[in-house]
């Protein structure tokens, strides 16, 4: 897509452009646009947040990571008292567009997760390095949970291993491997408790860089950078599609009242069976319109399949609307399940107050409320299906 060529990084504004362009396209073209967008992942800016308790060695880690000594020019300030007050940004030594943020410490005794997260603008970071000072604590649980809730990832680091080893060395039966193992297990167990199946914990010393796991962490992170970038892009997608869908939904919703009113009017014509048949035709036509608007009609789906190599059945398995296998009497009536609840609750008064001329419309047909809530349900289902189809096509096709 040429609208991206001029950029070095994909910014919030670019996302807006992409959104704009997708919102005016049919589903297959939108998928194509998003695929092009995902190809630009080298341009994605990544923000790594280094977080953890005060004094755990975050700033020292950032320096070590960048290959700088603590007192070299351009290094992060470190010290025995609380040192980092505001998030500070540093460039990754190897990769442009990758930024390492040295964050203030979480003050351990009465850590207020929400205040801290606000203070450091937690949303800004694409993934995290949590640095633990000694044992696994409640504050680590809170941080890890919040990161997972945001759909982001973290690496867990236990720092100052040199100091732990020194302390243990005083014991008679000191065994370095065993000590490291105990430290590692403690952190792993903490992470398992919050549902991480295969936790990886990196033991490091910022003073002895060649020892322990610093190299492993660096290798692993570099290997996973493309995945992180991809996730940044994918994470932006549901929001993009959600907003677009909301716009489409609003436009379509505007018509529901008219259809429902028409159907209610027909219901007053005293011909047995007529109103029911007319309702079905009206509702069917309206729902077909929704399928077209969201690009889930068969020709559009076929186009999408041709591009992604999937079958229509696979596409439909991403969809949940009862109408996905055809818009017919049976599938439309299955929407009534939800509609009739609303009807039972407030139909009579509502209809009477809304359209006084019709008074007590209780002919054999469906009422205003029934039709409008059926259509609303269909519209919601279809919008949701469109989103899932889009995300799944993008996810597998690239
Ligand atoms: N023994 C040992 N000391 C370390 C290590 N990393 C950092 N330190 C020391 O621990 C103290 C705190 O280090 P910082 O890097 O300033 O810690 P921080 O997490 O950035 O601290 P705040 O910004 O105040 O939250 C300093 O005196 C460091 O020299 C390490 O791996 N081993
Ligand atoms: Mg610091």
Can you walk me through this structure?
The chain has 398 residues and is α/β, with parallel strands linked by helices. It contains 15 helices and 6 strands. The protein has a 6-stranded mixed beta sheet, with helices on both faces. Helix 2 runs parallel beside helix 9, helix 3 runs parallel beside helix 11 and helix 3 runs parallel beside helix 15. It starts with a helix and ends with a helix.
What's the quick description here?
The protein is an alpha/beta fold and 398 residues long. 58% of the residues lie in helices and 8% in strands.
Key traits:
binds guanosine-5'-triphosphate, six-stranded mixed beta sheet, elongated
List the helices and strands and how they pair.
Layout: H1 2-5, H2 12-23, H3 27-39, E1 46-52, H4 58-65, E2 88-91, E3 98-102, H5 113-119, E4 127-132, H6 138-149, E5 153-158, H7 161-169, H8 176-193, E6 201-203, H9 214-267, H10 274-293, H11 298-308, H12 312-317, H13 329-334, H14 336-354, H15 368-397
Parallel strand pairs: 1-3, 1-4, 4-5, 5-6
Antiparallel strand pairs: 2-3
This protein binds guanosine-5'-triphosphate and magnesium ion.
Magnesium ion is lined by residues 58-59, 83-84, 102.
Structural class by sheet pairing and helices:
alpha/beta
Shape: elongated
User: What is the multimeric organization of the chains shown?
Assistant: single chain
Annotation, overall tally of beta strands: 6
Radius of gyration: 29 Å
Give the proportion of residues in helices.
Answer: 55-70%
What's the number of helices? 15
Distance between the termini: 15 Å
Strand proportion, as a percent range, falls in 5-15%
């Amino acid at each position: 897509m040429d609208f991206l060529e001029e950029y070095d990084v994909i910014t919030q504004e670019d996302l807006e452009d992409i959104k704009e362009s997708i919102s005016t396209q049919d589903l297959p073209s939108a998928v194509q646009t998003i695929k092009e967008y995902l190809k630009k992942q080298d341009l994605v800016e990544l923000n790594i947040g280094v977080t953890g308790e005060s004094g755990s060695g975050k700033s020292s880690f950032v320096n070590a990571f960048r290959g700088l000594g603590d007192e070299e020019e351009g290094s992060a300030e470190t010290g025995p008292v609380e040192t980092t007050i505001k998030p500070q940004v540093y460039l990754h030594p190897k990769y442009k567009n990758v930024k390492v943020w040295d964050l203030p410490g979480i003050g351990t005794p009465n850590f207020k997760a929400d205040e801290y997260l606000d203070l450091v603008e937690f949303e800004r970071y694409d993934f995290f390095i949590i640095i633990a000072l000694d044992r696994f604590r409640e504050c680590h649980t809170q941080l890890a949970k919040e990161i997972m809730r945001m759909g982001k990832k973290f690496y867990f680091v236990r720092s100052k291993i040199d100091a732990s080893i020194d302390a243990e060395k005083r014991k008679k039966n000191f065994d370095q491997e065993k000590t490291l193992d105990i430290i590692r297990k403690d952190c792993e167990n903490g992470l398992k408790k919050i549902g991480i199946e295969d936790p990886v914990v990196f033991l490091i010393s910022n003073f002895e860089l060649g020892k322990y796991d610093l190299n492993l962490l660096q290798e692993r992170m570099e290997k996973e950078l493309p995945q992180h970038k991809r996730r940044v892009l994918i994470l932006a997608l549901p929001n993009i599609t959600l907003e677009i869908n909301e716009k489409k939904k609003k436009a379509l919703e505007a018509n529901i009242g008219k259809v429902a009113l028409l159907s209610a009017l027909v219901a007053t014509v005293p011909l047995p069976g007529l109103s029911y048949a007319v309702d079905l035709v009206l509702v069917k036509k309206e729902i077909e319109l929704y399928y077209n608007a969201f690009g889930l009609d068969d020709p559009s789906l076929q186009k999408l399949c041709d591009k992604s190599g999937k079958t229509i059945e696979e596409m439909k398995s991403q969809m949940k609307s009862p109408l996905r296998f055809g818009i017919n009497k049976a599938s439309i009536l299955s929407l009534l399940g939800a509609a009739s609840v609303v009807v039972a609750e407030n139909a009579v008064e509502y209809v009477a107050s809304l359209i006084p001329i019709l008074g007590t419309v209780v002919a054999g047909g469906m009422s205003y409320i029934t039709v409008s809530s059926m259509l609303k349900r269909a519209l919601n289902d279809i919008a949701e299906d469109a989103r899932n189809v889009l995300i799944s096509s993008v996810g597998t096709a690239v």
